[in-house]
Amino acid sequence: MHAQAAFAVTISGQATIDGVPVPATKRPLDVGLEQFGDAYVARVLDLLAGQPDWMSLYKVLDVVEDSVGGERALEAKGWVPATSLKRLTLTANAIETAASGGRHATGKYSLAKSRLQPLPLDEAWDVVRQMVRSWLMTRA
User: Fold this and answer.
1) Could you tell me the residue ranges of all domains in the chain?
2) Taking residues 2-21, what's their average pLDDT?
3) How many Å apart are CA 83 and CA 118, to the nearest integer?
């Protein structure tokens, strides 16, 4: 007869079998980051670690644009519609969103001056998630 091992997870999140710590399983993304040291991916992951707001979403857009060679190169990838990227930029920069974490507080950037509709934060988050998923596939 074989004895069964007792598996447990402590409050700290450390898994043990019969009191012996079990090494954490690494996700493929973690392994990839260790092997390639991708600074762009590390920046994006750091920016996405908190609650999404206009500043963090726009900074993610900045990093992805920089990694692919600029705004036009990103649009050419077709990961998200160019209009969605323009709406994200417009809304993140607008004076009207300054109180809720927007990037600027001058009338130079105003939703009233654009024919594009503003992008609600939850939709902006969806656009960024879609873009980042596609982008990460090219970084692997």
Assistant:
1) 27-139
2) 59
3) 11
